[in-house]
Predict the 3D structure of the following.
Amino acid sequence: MRALTLLKAAAAAGALLVGTAPALAQTIAITNGRVVIGDGSEPIDGGTVVIRNGRVVAAGAGVSVPADAQVVDANGRWVTPGLVSGFSRIGLAEVDAASASNDTGANSSPFSAAIDVAPAVNPQASAIAVNRAAGVTRAVVAPQASSSMFGGQGAVIDLGSDMDPIMRRRAFQYVELGETGGQRAGGSRASAHALLRNALREAGQLRVTIPGGTGRRQPDASAEQPMLEDQPDFRMFEPTRERASDVLLTRFDAAALVPVVRGQQALLVHVERASDILQTLALKREFPNLRIVLVGATEGWRVADDIRAAGVPVIANALNDLPASFEQLAATQSNVGRLRAAGVTVGIGHINDDETRQIRLMPQYAGNLVALNRIPGATGLSWAEAFAAISARPAEAMGLGGEIGSLRPGRRADVVIWDGDPLELSTGVEAVWIDGVQQSLENRQTRLRDRYRTPTEGALPHAYTPRQ
Amino acid sequence: MKSLLLAVAATALLAGCATAGGQQQSAQSAQAQQPSSPRAADPYPSTYRAYPGVVTAITNATIFDGEGGRIDNGTIVLAEGRILAVGGADTAIPEGATRIDGNGRWVTPGVIDIHSHLGNYPSPGVEAHSDGNEVTGPVRPEVWAEHSIWPQDPGFSRALANGGITTLHVLPGSANLFGGRGVTLRNVSARTYQQMRFPGAPRSLKMACGENPKRVYGNRNQMPGSRMANVALMRQTWQRAVEYRDRVGRDPNTPRDLALETLVEVLNGDVLVQNHCYRADEMAIMLDMAQEFGFRIASFHHAVEAYKIADLLRERGTCASVWADWWGFKMEAYDAVNENAPLIHNAGACAIIHSDDANGIQRLNQEAAKTLADGRRMGIQISDETAWRWLAINPATALGIADQTGSLRVGKRADVVLWNGHPFSVYTRPQQVWIDGALLYDMNNPQLRPVSDFELGQPGEGDTK
């Protein structure tokens, strides 16, 4: 009870600081927690998490509490890293069907690969606050491929209540290569592959100088490294170089694909069908530097060994089990478990699944994968792996495992305290820190809830409800 | 190739008609169904037959009876398709009954989804399968959702195996003010929808408020292009129905109008109104409209703002069918709260958890669990067994089948789920599911896992899904 009060006081303090304070140079020790590191290791009882200057200093058992630390007693409750969505469009829409508020796609844009979602991400979107209150602290944000098979460049964001949501700008290029890719590329998958190859070749011929990039292949493509520094996009100003007269891409679009060809920027490829997955993996024969991440991969389990052999990570929907399209005939909830069992790095995302708003359902999805373990013939995940699938694994898939997704030392201090097992349906969030800053858990939904606790009017209409 | 296929299909269709006609006649006379139309006997009667079961006793389980009751260490006996007994450890078990130890497991009535589009928006979601909305006019009470249902939709089996769904109500979509008739189905694999139709269950009329009708038709420069036109066109249509009813009353030879006939059946209380309506203010308008023309709305569906008028819903006796946490996909879903169902329940109104979704229908128990927990966190204490009403007796009541199913009362249909843990836990799945006492899903028996025709010969056929 005393700890609860402490937590509430801390939350109130956090609320006051919201919007005014950047990452605080302070030390916080969350003690006596059931600590989940998030990397697939088992929970640690009686654990402590120490964060300083927005980073994790240490987490686990036997961690000493620095003398200057503000102590938060978790009182046995669960302490985990913040959740990481492996695929979303959060912050790009306020109300999906209110088209002016929806920046997920650009179906009449003259540009494709050059589109960069970063300027469109609204840190004050209702969905950011709603999902933050459910423990989501980071998200991959992808543009939709609307006018072309290329969606453009996506970002990795934090869900903090400040005005700077972008953690990694232009973190990846997003491309459709399945049914949608075929449709966007003129009517067939074959056309999509031709267009993709042509685009990458045009980019390869461009030889743009990219700030922060060497143009050489990274020595170890699997090593976790930031893919592109967050700098202004000078590529669009490259003025003079001659291009062939028969190019298809605009200069800006072609320039945007240069870091993809060079392996400096990940290429997120949305494919579902087993054969489409193999065709995507085969691209590396022609373009060896590509850093492919498979998105979707509903039939991935059928070619799991090929995916593992290619060293390609996967961001998958957790629970697809319907032949929702002809590219998902083999859908099963065991997909993620079977991929993992084959040794593939697989994180959970919301691919065309309420991805602007409902990434908060990740714990439920992950919990369902644990439930599969008790069904003969199904393949699920252990609890610790299921949690990692919504924390460390998506971060690793994006090459950001050294920054986010776990409570290992040096990671950004995104921490959540839960009132129970984080994957269980009855569990709620008690406190959230992002970059070491405690966050408000209030949002439109909690305000409406409080206003209509009693539906019938009192002495004044509901519009006069005082702020509590 | 295509024309050849068409020719073959046509032949098959003709042959099918000939046989079906004979069967239909005998089924009709045998069943002597209640005529649900004032003008004719039910022309598309249920041919559902319960599959055989054995006398089964589940012992030592925690039982939620679906009406708010709970029995710890309980026993339930299923026999001849019905619930023979339900009670404590001392419940008599007939000689020779198959006994199942329910230790550590939970027994509930089969889950009922009051809002589904399985069959009329089936998987795969190709255009050729898009049969839920008759978007050629905003007033289409003459169409029946059941005539769009494809029984081979693989979604039925997922709802059974993962969701414990034993009964579902399939509705037309919400493009129209009057979308047509909805139908209640038993969740059994079948060749025809008639074999799935819940015997004796009333049909429904789907109505829709708000954004969808005015968007669909307003964009074509047709009425309705506004919410006020939604209401005007509804009222005009109800007025025509009232006049048609009176005319038929005076002159039985009045030419049949299949559209108005549906509405007259609503006015007579034979067809139940299921009303897609998100916003509180629009629900209040609909409740007045119901009084103006003398019909009753069984349930609002989607009802994202029901919590704002839960007192009014209680007064008028209309249920609110809701999601746990869907929100924000359009303006009328903007004011969602996670505690909608508990707030409705807490005000004394009738809450129902529905899916409207081929995935959500697999997890209605989880949806109830989430919103229940959110309610408790704001101080609304509702017991687990009471909350199970949202998946059982409440939807059964709103569908007019509460005398048949929706709770574990002696004599009711033996629609039962044995869960392998607490059904409000994310780690729990149906272990076995009985429909009318027939064991139609068993987690441990691959032979008891339905595979639709569509899935035969496809990758993943017969897999755990």
